[in-house]
Every structure is written in C-alpha cells, then in structure tokens.
Amino acid sequence: MLSYQHAYHAGNFADVHKHLTLHAVIDHLLRKDSSITYIDTHAGRGLYPLDASETLRLQEYREGVIPLWKARQALANEPLLSDWLAALANAQPAPSRLTHYPGSPWWMGHRRRKGDRQWLFELHPGEHEHLAQQPFSEAVERIHGDGLKGLLQRVPVKTPRLCVLIDPSYERKAEYHEVAETLLTAMHKARHAVVLVWYPLLPAGRHRELLEGLRDGGLRKVWYGEFIRQSPREGERGMFGSGMLVVNPPWGLDERLAAAMAPVVDSLGAPGSYRSGWWVGE
Hints:
By secondary structure, this protein is an alpha/beta fold. It has one domain (about 5-230, about 250-280): 3-Layer(aba) Sandwich (Rossmann fold). About 35% of the residues lie in helices and about 20% in strands. The chain starts with 12 loop residues before the first helix and ends with a strand.
C-alpha cells in the first residue's frame, strides 16, 4: 500500500515534536568533529509549500507550527526551541514569512558538514519524484526504494558515527513489527548508532507492539518522549498524540527536550501534555 502522502499533514503537531527531537539530537552530535552518516528511511518530499493543494485540504499546520511561529518572539528565552524556530526561518524564501514547512531531509541536512553523508530513502514513486526535484547538494543520495531494507543493506557505515530516522506512515498494521525487527537487526550491525523512531498514538494502541518488541528483543538504552495532544475520545480513530524513541540518546537530551516541549504544549493549547523517560535503560 502506497497511498500515504505527508503533504496532507505537513507542519502538524507531530511534525513539531518529531523535528524538534531530531534537531536536539543532531545538535548534540555536532559537538564532536567526527563525521556522521545520516539515513532517513521514509524521506517524503523534503519540503512542503503550505499553499500546496494537499496541505491546504486539512491545514493541520494551523494547530501545529503556526502558533509557535506567531509566538517566536515570546519563546526566545527557551534555547532549544528558539534555535529550532530560527532554523525554520532559514528554510523560508523570505525569513519573515512562514510559507514552507521543511521535512526531515532538511532538518537532517541543513547543518551537514564536509565529510558528512546523507542517504534519503523514499518508496512512493510520486513522493520520490518530488524529493528528486529538491535542490540538495551532491553529498545527498536519494534512493527510490524501501528504507527499512535499505538501512539493513547499508549498515555498518564508513563514517565513525551514524544517525538514523525511521518515520513510517504505519498504514499497515505489520509496520510496527517490521520497524521493531529492522531496528533490532540494525543495532546488532551498528551498536553505537543513534536511531530515532517516530510512532503515532492511536486509540488502538498498536505502538505497544513496537515498544514491547524492542524490549523483548533485548535492546538497551531506549528513551521515549510522547506529546499527548488531547485525550482519546471513545469511538474516535484519529491520532491523539505523537511518540519518539531514541536509541543511544545523547546525554542531557531528556532535560533539554522537556524544557523545550513545555512552551510547545502551552502554545498549542489545552489539554496537551508531554512525558518522557527510559523505556529500557542500561
């Protein structure tokens, strides 16, 4: 099934949570000089104009990135969040106007250094066509293919460090199991990789299959952060929250993200909440 297109949801609350977490992780990684390979298993289009027909249909960015953008001056005292918003401004054709929302390829690559590598996988042919048109540098390799299989084919990598984002649509129930199995195999091949996994919080609670699969598979040092946008209502089927896992998280990540997510929760309004901690410790 290849029906999912992220353009319908670009800039929503889950994107804010996901990309703020990714930004914080990369910020820590860049404190060392050794080179990094970045792998994005579900890259999408790379950049989303907010006036695109798909994005305008649902306009989920109005309850995601827009309130934070409007409040960016008031949020200047929170270091991580203000830095993320400044980076967001740099992704705009005119920095004073929010007209585009950058996807994970941009958040991974806009601070890429000489010697760093970036591999972007996208299986959907239409999405990959959009991705191929983005003006990325020659250091970025765009692969039309299955990102989970591609990850296993390409690890271990030649650079001293590896950062991976796994961000499927979870259209198929089997994807939760597939992500867990892929991650367990990848970590056996690259034990020091820093891997981020996004998952939706849905009333059916299928994300537990992913979480329990990692724990039962013996993976260690797995941190989680969950942004609860609203309490799930009986009978509703939509996403009520966003979850992030980080395997081998950098020291201090939990505290920095908790401080940044507090004003995010406040800006996006009640009844949101944020929680984090170790899913599996040492």
